[in-house]
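LAB NOTEBOOK - FOLDING QUEUE
OPERATOR: T.R.
BATCH SIZE: 2
PURPOSE: Compare the predicted structure-token outputs for two unrelated chains run back to back under identical settings.
PRIORITY: normal
REVIEWER: second-year student, initials M.K.

ITEM 1
FIELD SEQUENCE / FIELD STRUCTURE:
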Amino acid sequence: MGLFSFGKPSPPKANNKVWKTREECLKGTVRECLLSIRNSEIAIIAFPFEESRQAMETFLNKAPVPFQSIDTYAGKDILSTTDKIFLIDLFPLTNLSSDRKINFFILGRYPYLPEERKSLEHLRIKFPNAVISFCLSLDDTVFKVFGSERLKPLMESLGMKEDEFIEHAMINTSIANGLEKIEQKVVNELKSSSEKGWFERNLIEL
């Protein structure tokens, strides 16, 4: 199916925010986090790949924006403050808890749905009231599957500025359909530290 194919998909479990470029995605994700902090909410950026984490840490250090990296052994009370952005690896998730509202911003999609579903389910069980958003850009390798060349003209026709993102149910549906197609093609998944590396190891034809 194309990016705006119509059908009767199941409701998306998380929204996809799509920026034009990788740089604008980094900036936009941080802006979304700062809005959460202003509302006294906890902002967490989660990373499916080490490469995306390094890119965000480099960006935050240059900004500069206060942030704290959380490792697997972080204590449960580490989320007691809302004056900084927290960074966490999507795999494995840490043993966190908080009574405050939490906004998770996942930088990129993990291309293999079974693994991504495990993490999302863990988040929903542990933080049932959390808001989960995927922060993406048309520069992401995964968009080769979804046809980013169709989305760019749409974003331009809408008069979108470079720092704006598009968010729509049809985009959620199209991405979900694309990830399902990837899942069908992968027999034995091989891990990688980057999105591009993952595709090179698992779907060479892309």
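ITEM 2
FIELD SEQUENCE / FIELD STRUCTURE:
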Amino acid sequence: MTARGRTRIVERRSDPPLVLRPTPEAVHLVGGTAGPLGGDDLALDVEVGPGARLTVRTVAASLVYPGTGPSRLAVTARVDRGGHLDWAPEPTVAIAGCDHEASASIDLAEDATLRWSEQLVLGRSGEAGGRVRSTLWADLAGSPLLRHALDVGGDAPDGPAITAGARAIGNLLVVGPEAAPLDREAQSPERAVLDLAGGGALVTVVGGSACASTS
């Protein structure tokens, strides 16, 4: 953050297929090539400084393709005191035959805030979805806040306690004042709100297509 209270990017480095493009409103992840592709091992590190605010978006859905082995994407985010991170990419589509591992690890300072949205769609229209194993871990002020794992698609087991056959899964993790007004009355088999012991909430939605809203 500058002396005038404005957020500015002090370092930006990227290589295809994850290319970073800043705009006045957000930093966009642009697919420089197709992928993730089986065999890719990708990593993205995000750091938000004290009092700064960062919005991250993508310009289109990400298609995960099969290949010579599993594909991997690891995102690490750190948000310093008074900082805010708003992460909401377009859905990830797991194409039939893919084997994908996705992990997100978020480290929040004591008064940092967060809005982290993830959407997964199993397969394109008319096809079965590939296998996806994902984890979402968050720490607040050095203590564990959330440990969330998902293993779906492909030959992964399914049932009423997992996705009940739904093709789309959305998660929204909110830490800070935005967690208070979340609608907790609209609980259903397709939507659940979990209040976290350390503060904040996790909203999970399942459906037949991309989850347009997890709020």
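REVIEWER COMMENT (ITEM 2): The two ends are 29 Å apart (CA to CA).
FOLLOW-UP: none requested
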